[in-house]
Amino acid sequence: METMNRNEAKKMIERLKKENEQWLSATKKAFMDGIFSIIERVRVEKKKDFILELIQNADDCDSSEISFDLLRSKIIIQNNGHPFKSDPDPTKDEIFAICKLGRTTKESGKIGYMGFGFRAVFEVSKKPEIYSGNFSFYLDKDMIVPHWIDRIPRNIKTRLDKMKGKGSIFVLTGLSNEIRRDVENALENLSPTLLLYLQHLKRIK
After folding, report:
1. Quick one: which of 174, 148, 31 has its CA closest to 101?
2. Which residue among 37, 152, 154, 170 has the highest number of C-beta atoms inside a 10 angstrom radius?
3. Order of all β-strands in the sheet with 129-132
4. SS3 3
5. Triad 77, 82, 87: Cα angle to 5°
6. Alpha helices in 46-121 (DSSP H)
7. pLDDT digits (tens, 9 = 90+) for 56-66
8. CA neighbours within 13 Å on the CB side: how many for 11?
9. Which of 190, 69, 86, 187 is nearest to 134 (CA)?
10. How big is the CA angle at 95 (ends 91 and 98), to the nearest 5 degrees?
11. Distance set, CA 150 to CA 37, 108, 158, 169 (Å)
């Protein structure tokens, strides 16, 4: 499988954006309200689980470490595993899966198997940004519509250059003071035995 260059990656994100916007527009409002009310209940009942979801995601992509940099109004999460894979077969395409409700490339038994795992980041951010390989985009409040990021922030570009094509970066923006405190407490209280249950991850910082 060939790696997409940045121009090809941009075209793919723009295609997915158009397809998902059309799908949202064509879908009956009552049906969508039902779907999102279910997701909202899951988000409320499993608050702060996005940390475990991103840790599991890092382990699934063979990362040996993951970092959570908690800044004033955002969190930057970085892992050093393989970047998101794009594949002509939608069932194997990780970018396609992250932009579709109920779709996933994960095997049964893994967190996120039903395709809702990554949506947990919307517990803390309405516009999560994703930088992985040649892909740079964010998801809007509808959770599935991707928007291409042309100008990568300098601090993220520096991180990506040091990563040399490996890993992924997630930027969760718009943190309230309350959410920031909750996340800080959750990170401080992660069980030290968590790594024992992961296959590849050796360090969480």
Report:
1. 31
2. 170
3. 146-148, 135-139, 129-132, 168-173, 74-79, 65-70, 203-204
4. coil
5. 115
6. 50-60, 94-98
7. 889 988 999 99
8. 5
9. 86
10. 85
11. 33, 35, 15, 16
| Strand extents, DSSP E, the chain | 65-70, 74-79, 129-132, 135-139, 146-148, 168-173, 203-204
Tokens at residue 27, please?
């879908």
Contact (Cβ atoms closer than 8 angstroms) between residue 123 and residue 50: yes
Cβ–Cβ < 8 Å for 79, 61: yes
pTM for this predicted structure = 0.81
Do the Cβ atoms of 139 and 69 come closer than 8 Å?
no
Element (H, E) at 31: helix 29-45
pLDDT, tens digit (0-9, with 9 covering 90-100), for 139-151: 987 788 899 999 9
Q: 160 with 152: CB under 8 angstroms?
A: yes
Quickly tell me which residue has 């309405």 as its tokens: 126
